[in-house]
Structures are given as C-alpha cells and as structure tokens.
Write a structure and sequence with these properties.
Layout (H helix, E strand, L loop, with lengths): L2 E3 L6 E3 L10 H8 L8 E2 L2 E2 L10 H5 L1
Antiparallel strand pairs: 1-2, 3-4
This protein binds zinc ion (2 copies).
Length: about 60
C-alpha cells in the first residue's frame, strides 16, 4: 500500500486510509472531525492506517 507522511505529526500512514491529503487519520479526526481510525497496534504501528502513535505538540495539547 502507498505510504504518505503526515504533515502534522510526522508519522507515515497508508494514503488510502485517510480522507485528507497529507494528514494521517488521527490528525484528520482531531483537527477536522473526520472519522476516527479504530487503531489496532501491532509492533508499534496501527495495522489499519500505519500511524505510529506520534502526536504533534499541537494535537497533543487539544
Ligand atoms: Zn498525523
Ligand atoms: Zn489506525
């Protein structure tokens, strides 16, 4: 699957898993209210969206 790098938290994620350009599903949901990924972590990454749990200072403070 194609990977993309989130411009907010810096984590890589599956391009197909997010509806936003250059935002992972986690940041897209926090910042814009898009549907949240029900993350399933395995070996430090979500197996559904590939997010690694990173948060930017901004999204962590929300
Ligand atoms: Zn992100
Ligand atoms: Zn996920």
């Amino acid at each position: 699957m194609e990977l993309e790098k989130c411009s907010e938290c810096g984590s890589e994620y599956y391009k197909a898993s997010s509806k936003m350009m250059s935002l992972c599903p986690e940041c897209a949901s926090i910042l814009y209210g898009y549907e949240k990924c029900e993350h399933v972590f395995k070996d430090g990454r979500c197996i559904k969206c590939y997010w690694d749990g990173s948060k930017s200072r901004y999204t962590e403070s929300l």
